[in-house]
Amino acid sequence: MLFVNKNGLVDAERIIVRRFSTIERGKLDKVNGIIVHQTGGSTAESSFNSYKNTGANGAHFLIDKDGTIYQTASVFKITYHVGNIRSRCYMEKKCKPSEISKIKPLLNKYKQLSRLEQKKPYPERYPANFDSLGIEIVGKPVSGEDQDAIYEKINDAQNSSLKWLVAELSDTLKVSMTEIFRHPEVSYKVKTEAGTAQW
Question: May I ask which residue range the UniProt record assigns to the signal sequence (predicted)?
Answer without folding.
Answer: none
